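2024-03-11 09:14:02 DEBUG pipeline.ingest accepted 1 chain
2024-03-11 09:14:02 DEBUG pipeline.ingest length=332
2024-03-11 09:14:03 DEBUG pipeline.predict start
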Amino acid sequence: MTICLSHISALQALREARSKGCRPKEAGKRIPKSTSIREVEAFVAKAGFLRPLPPEEKVSILVSSQSSRSKSTKTITHVCANSAVAAIALAKPRGVFIPNLGFLFVQLAQCAPFLTLIEIGYELCGSYTLLPDESTFVQCEPATNHNHLAKEIRAFRGMRGREIATRALQFVADNSASPMETKLTMFLCLKRTMGGYGLPFPKLNFPIEPTSAARKAAHKQRYVLDLYWPKRKIDVEYDSDSYHASSEGIASDAQRRNALQLMGVTVITVTRGQLYNAASFDRTARIIAASIGVRLPKTSQRWISQNQMLRYVLLKNETKPSEKGIRHNATD
């Protein structure tokens, strides 16, 4: 059996593999010229994670021969004669592949909303993956990094979606550890024309070695800072769970904050409640901006509308803004 999954189906397979601790490896195998539709349908029936998703409502496969297009009601066949190298996505069953990640990212740029594409970029370059049904996430090794992904994307000149993929990747940073860290970074760093605050990108989950005094304060050999601006020594920490509200968590956070303070690092905390409250987060974002030496312009009605749309897309907890046609792929 040789199957190369494509588009969203390939992303589902990659998520399934990463959630089980399998990191994709270059297989040195070309996209197959043809695929047995019976084998594909049998595989789809057994693979519970591989459910049809919009926009095609079918499982997508990739072949390199025009004559191998399928008229199956359960699958859709994409043809690509490009010599893109397939990567092993699943340990079991053998013979199931996905395209290399640069090719896959360009494919997704053809069908995914722009902000979703950026989030996928963070996921691929981060230490987490969503489950195929997107119900939750698990920690895992990064599938790639920004520079490698950019290099792969450059190889597909003339391919539909390449320009969009390139634009999306400029807003992606390496080493995000969770979907909420990704959203926080996007809110702070996307351009103001996209509803963000336009701050320079921080280092995500940046490790620093403590000084001797800091080590005595918290007995730690290393600190990993969520969103860190090294020049200003500003660390923004996202507090996501009940651990931080427990007596043990409060004590640990206090020790950590004291140790970082001894090293000259200022810690700013963002809670889930702050992130989900537009006014509260705006105040926090302005504190962060001032701390790293960025002067934000006056708030315009257009930016408010863009920010409302951004919040709707990323958090999905607010009423959709009434304005239509707001674009998120602006690059100015």
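2024-03-11 09:14:41 DEBUG pipeline.report Residues 247-262 form the longest helix (16 residues).
2024-03-11 09:14:41 DEBUG pipeline.predict end
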